[in-house]
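Researcher: Next entry in the queue.
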Amino acid sequence: MKRAVYKMWMPLALSVTSLAVQAQQNKVIKAITVKGTVQFTDPKNQEHKVWLMKESLSGKPVAVDSCLLGADNTFKFNLKQDHQGVYTVDAFHWDRASFWSDADVKMELRGYDTAKYKVKIPHYNYVEGSYDNNFINLAVLNNELGYRRSVDEYNMQYYAKKAGDSSAWQKYMDTRKVYSPFNEDYNQRQEVLQRAYQDRPVLIYAIRGMAGTEAGEKYDKAMKLLEVLMVKYPWLTEAKQLKETIIYNMKQAMKLKTGQPMPSVKYPTPDGSLASLDQYKGKYLLVDFWASWCGPCRQAIPHVKELYSAYKDRGFEVASISIDTDKKAWVKAMSEENMPWMQLLSDNKDKTMQEFQFSGIPTMYLVDPEGKILDRYTGFSEETAVKVKEVLEKGTKAGAPKKATSIPMTSF
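Model: Structure for this entry, 412 residues:
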């Protein structure tokens, strides 16, 4: 009899828990406490500032508060809000962690990079918070693991190729059987996670990156999920904003397809005057979006120089457009790299990234003599150089649209 009663109570307990979570997610939370610690600070700086950023999910994050790190390496924010959403704690612009603001959160950040060679790519930070907040914890971890595996795969392929076609390593890479490619691993984990949280407002954190700019199954699914959130959570204003952004990005991406004219834009030169890309009509042009702080961008420059030197007398030009926000850093980098082609500085980084539809650099567009887009390269590799050379050797003109090449880059 006792056993039977126990079985009867189990579904009831689960039901009560489910109702409690349901009530929490429908409730509008007006205030929470955000606190944490930072393990390492920059010894060269006296003030160690921490920012609390509101993620709009459709544009640039907005700083809503900031504080100096305490003597005991702690920080605390009392967040007041209209409704819960996605926020990020940014420590010294070196480390960060995102969270869903429907309950008090606590985090431990590593902070300043103590390695000899510093890279501004945050490692994974777990945030203690609500049940819904765990969606962000898991989504961020999935992104981090996916990124690391993609870098590992790229490095293995690159060094195997350098070892030679007859090497045991290259033979292994050519014949190995992979249980599932890294992108399929990522997508499978992401799909399960989204199904588990499909009726929760925090799902908006993932929708921003799943729609893409191509019509199809993923795009339709993202828009359908947004519609559901807009109806179920009318206070979630970010859902409507994100829908508008996705529609804009799709329309903008269509303008950047192969065969479309390269947008006519003007940016400041080092001397402050404005210059456009229109002056290169009649020549092949490689437009390179980069920044002084971007390692892959700086590594690509010598290879672009080789292309420029080999083909400049055959009607090939290069134009670099920096998205630096620190003009001094831009000028310093130009001096160090000594690039013998036109240098331009975006006067609005976010607008430039939106107009040319990129979220990572280097991003390059190859334009034909008629001013039409031939191809787009995300990152730079030996394969990129081969493709550019092939176009220049054959005198290829813009043809049918084709997919962008995608390899490792600096993302932000």
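Model: The chain has three domains: 29-128, 137-254, 266-411.
Researcher: Noted, moving on.
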